[in-house]
Amino acid sequence: MGENQFSRELRLLTPSHFTYVFDDAIPAVSPSFTILARHNSLDNPRLGITLSKKRIRKAHDRNRIKRLIRESFRHRRQALPCVDIIVVGKSGADRMSNGEIYAQLEKLWRKLSKRCNASS
User: Fold this and answer.
1) Integer Cα distance of 22 and 85 in angstroms
2) How many CA atoms, within 13 angstroms, populate the side-chain half-sphere of residue 44?
């Protein structure tokens, strides 16, 4: 399990980390999620998640989606470039099944990798 952990080094923790990404982001968009990324000076990608109560009303739905996003990131992080990533949830994400969410995230990770590698 050592390589699939989600330690502090892999997370965006402070508002300044989020602002850094929002200021000049590389987007990857789907109907239920927007992924924003910006190159960092570290040797690993980092993840931040924003799921607003306005878009996804129930706490258990927000928690389920966050768990799926973190799991998907853990499995794909070795293939991702060194970027800071923010996943933004949109309306309707709570009505998707776990498999649908996971499949959509996989497509977005691939799209994001292509765009980040092209912009470096």
Assistant:
1) 10
2) 16
Domain count, the chain: 1
CATH at 109: 3.30.230.10
pLDDT in tens, 16-60: 999 999 999 999 999 999 999 999 998 999 999 999 999 999 999
Three-state DSSP state, 50: strand
What is the distance between the alpha carbons of residues 37 and 5, in angstroms, rounded to a whole number? Answer: 21
CA distance 95 to 17: 30
